Amino acid sequence: MADELKLYAASGSPFVFRVELAFILKGVTYKTVEENIKNKSADLLKYNPVYKQVPVLVHNGNPIPESLVIIEYIDDVWKGYPILPQDPYEKSVVRFWAKFIDSTCILAILKVFGSNGAEHAIAEAHKQLQVVENKLAVEGNKFFGGDNINLIDIAASFIAYWLGMLEEGTGIKFVPKDKFPKITEWADNFLKVEVVKDVLPPRVIPPKAQLLAFFKQRFGDS
Amino acid sequence: MADELKLYAASGSPFVFRVELAFILKGVTYKTVEENIKNKSADLLKYNPVYKQVPVLVHNGNPIPESLVIIEYIDDVWKGYPILPQDPYEKSVVRFWAKFIDSTCILAILKVFGSNGAEHAIAEAHKQLQVVENKLAVEGNKFFGGDNINLIDIAASFIAYWLGMLEEGTGIKFVPKDKFPKITEWADNFLKVEVVKDVLPPRVIPPKAQLLAFFKQRFGDS
């Protein structure tokens, strides 16, 4: 039986992009099921009852939610391009940094938009971005993965592409390029990678009021 | 060369406990380096410059921070007791739930203490605990891992043991047993497991003011 691979997706989502990029790197073809985020399908709610969010990968009927969990699964099932290293120690380092960027760092960024640019939120986001900046500076590589992108680059793709759109859309510009030259250089390199260019969604800036309302609801102080 | 395994730890930490339990399940011996959380060692700051927290495992000089990252490493390196399943799909399910409990669920609980029992924080914690309750009810197993504990049980150990101490210490009792009978039953089963009993730290209730100040600083609304 041929594998049946369905990816529940939503155009423009940075989290869906991560999974699509992983599939392209592996050379695996899949079918996309486009979700309407304002009117989610019964299938999406059944496959991801906890978070009710895309992406969800359904492989031969087995649902897997959460982008980084999906990518570890893809790397476990399909050989070819290594998204995580094989060596257990190197693998743990990659898991640590992907998790740091996915949770601590991106969350701090989202809270800037959620708080409509509050000073304490910007200070926290700068602090976490500085951790990433220092890592790139110390290692001096083209990508987090060295000469080629790996799970950390994929996790950080939000910073390379979506962050700029959100800054422009909300008018909250808080990541000066001269403060984070290594991140800027990494983002330039990342966005030049052929497979990345193939999968990146179009640059679309939603209206400011809509963006701010969305982020306040999701990432504002509760 | 024999493996050199040093675990930077702090008595009573639920996150250190997770790693100790994983080592005991594997039958691997290690050396503990006790940290003074109020005066952290230069080694701890060097090995975990991002979070500056225990646990950190140092294996033949290679540092690994973050309890769940450490446990995946332990499961990758040492065979024997399987902490994660071998099958990629089952493994992804375990990763999903361990991450949900570690981040979403426990974070919601910690915010109850951080907000000194605010109503909205209690409602959110109840909502996330209900997700866990439903999972146990649907599956009807003794443990999240089935007949034996796995990574999900280890991630959830905070709920089985530390949550009750914090409720008692702070006086904020918000998890009624009759509302979560399956979680209560699971916790009873978990705390009866011989290896769990061997590693659990003593029941110690810090003073209320100290607890509330700690949680407000770490998990209060910012």
Automatic annotation (TrEMBL), chains A, B:
Q: Which GO terms describe its biological process?
A: glutathione metabolic process
Q: Which PANTHER family match?
A: GLUTATHIONE S-TRANSFERASE U8, GLUTATHIONE S-TRANSFERASE, GST, SUPERFAMILY, GST DOMAIN CONTAINING
- Pfam families hit by this protein: GST_C (PF00043), GST_N (PF02798)
A cellular component term (GO) from this record? cytoplasm
Show where the GST C-terminal domain sits. 87-219
What does the sequence similarity comment in the record state about its family? Belongs to the GST superfamily.
Q: Which residue numbers delimit the GST N-terminal domain?
A: 3-82
**What are the record keywords, sorted?**
Transferase
The record ties this protein, via InterPro entries, to: Glutathione-S-Trfase_C-like (IPR010987), Glutathione-S-Trfase_C_sf (IPR036282), Glutathione_S-Trfase (IPR040079), Glutathione_S-Trfase_N (IPR004045), GST_C (IPR004046), GST_C_Tau (IPR045074), Omega/Tau-like (IPR045073), Thioredoxin-like_sf (IPR036249)
Specify the enzyme's EC class, one word: transferase
Q: Name one GO molecular function term.
A: glutathione transferase activity
Species per Swiss-Prot/TrEMBL record: Helianthus annuus (Common sunflower)
Q: What EC designation does it have?
A: 2.5.1.18
Reaction(s) catalysed by this chain, per the record, are:
RX + glutathione = an S-substituted glutathione + a halide anion + H(+)
Q: What is the lineage of its organism?
A: Eukaryota, Viridiplantae, Streptophyta, Embryophyta, Tracheophyta
Q: What is this protein called?
A: glutathione transferase
* UniProt xrefs under Gene3D superfamilies: 1.20.1050.10, Glutaredoxin (3.40.30.10)
What superkingdom heads the lineage? Eukaryota
